[in-house]
Amino acid sequence: MKGNANEISGVTVVDDRTLQITIDAPKAYFLAKLTYPTAFVLDKDVVQAGGRNWWIDNPIGTGPFELKEYRIGERLVLERSSKYYKSLAKLDNVIFNLAGGQSMAMYENGEIDITGVGLFDIERILDTSNPLNQELEVAPPGFSIYYVGFNTNQPPFDDLKFRKALSHAIDKELIAEEVLSGLSVPAYGILPPGLPGYNPNIKGLQFDKELAQKLLSESKYASPDTRPRIVLTVPGTGGSMGLDLEVIIEMWKSYLGVEVEIQQVEWATYLKDLDEKKFQAFSGLGWEADYPDPQDFLDILFHSESSLNHGNYKNITADKLLEQARIESDVKQRFSIYNEVEEIIVQDAPWVPLWFTGERYALVKPYVKGYKFLPMIISKLKEVSIES
Fold first, then answer.
1. Rg, the chain, Cα only
2. Higher pLDDT, 243 or 240
3. What is the three-class DSSP state of 178?
4. Domains of the chain with CATH codes
5. Helix 331-348 with 295-302: angle, nearest 10 deg
């Protein structure tokens, strides 16, 4: 499917401000999906007249801000829209610096007003004797997960016990605390905390090196002589693959005697090969909610017919439950179905769930008022103001 169509059915213009949409079947997640930017309504005449780059040359929108300037790789400027259908934004304009550089240094030099706090700066910013500590904001965890994925059609990951052995051989608590400085939360399920349908009681595959060794001994790849070469592919061009991943590979070697090679691939090639399901194992990426619904994680990533099921995972029971959840109108029952299918997926171990985003830290200038941190990636700036 190329995603191209000359026409669609089921969309009716009721009046100047109302669309009526008829879908092909009940879909409990449909309203949540409409919050995703690709579902926003566009003016057909403007799009067709503007050509391929209409959104840069002559952008339109219905939000509280309009795009005033966009210089690729340099900056993006929004200005308040006088046509917004609700109360107008408080800021005259918002400038996003896209040129790169050290955002922390730019913040300290007064070049920007808001920045995230990374791993290398968090210790000094948390120090209460540092004046910047007074500008520190704690943001809620994001709806995201980082993981190692396995191609369940390729040896040795076609063996369930081998996959589970690798999962049980990772001490996530140790890595989260000692390597990631507590900025990430160990993940034992798929759905991140705070997402509708999240199950706080899921146990997952906990660290247990004795159990990991037992499972490996029972797998058909127990002997190194019968085990194929294992390659874990990550995006990159020669830099560090991440200290957390280095520690994980060392744990596999130390606890199980399993050697894993790292292959770095340029980003565009990585995405192409990932979509074509060429990798034996893959990491260095995560998944962040496009819209706040379990369907965006469990169905999109693990249904056997999903194009984003990069590990060729297939479980008939899981498929049936996911299809049932799509049309279940009772919210409580629907989330119960997702909890059940999440448990199945976790026990099948097509992934090693690694980390959820923990509490995020950011610096905000004292004169910036009304900036709110949300679990979704898109900031809401309408109520933000600058205090004189």
1. 24
2. 243
3. helix
4. 11-57 (no CATH), 144-357 (3.10.105.10)
5. 40
Residue 308: name the closest of 77, 147, 118, 124 by CA: 147
Give the span between the Cα atoms of 213 and 169, in whole angstroms: 8
Cα end-to-end distance, the chain, whole Å: 53
Task: Give the whole-angstrom CA distance, residue 116 versus residue 119.
Answer: 10
* Rounded Cα distance, 322 and 339, in Å: 11
Token representation of residue 348: 């099948």
- Which pair of structure tokens corresponds to residue 280? 């034996």
Which residue in 110, 135, 114, 112 sits closest to 125, CA to CA? Answer: 135
- Coil vs helix vs strand at 274: helix
- Quick count: other Cβ atoms within 10 Å of Cβ 216? 26
- Helix segments in the chain, DSSP class H: 30-33, 44-50, 54-57, 103-108, 122-126, 160-168, 172-174, 209-218, 243-251, 267-275, 295-302, 316-327, 331-348
pTM over 0.85: no
Q: Measured at the alpha carbon of residue 289, what is the angle toward residues 21 and 57, in degrees to the nearest 5?
A: 70
Cβ count within 10 A of residue 65:
19
Task: Convert the pLDDT of each residue in 199-227 to its tens digit.
Answer: 999 999 999 999 999 999 999 999 999 89
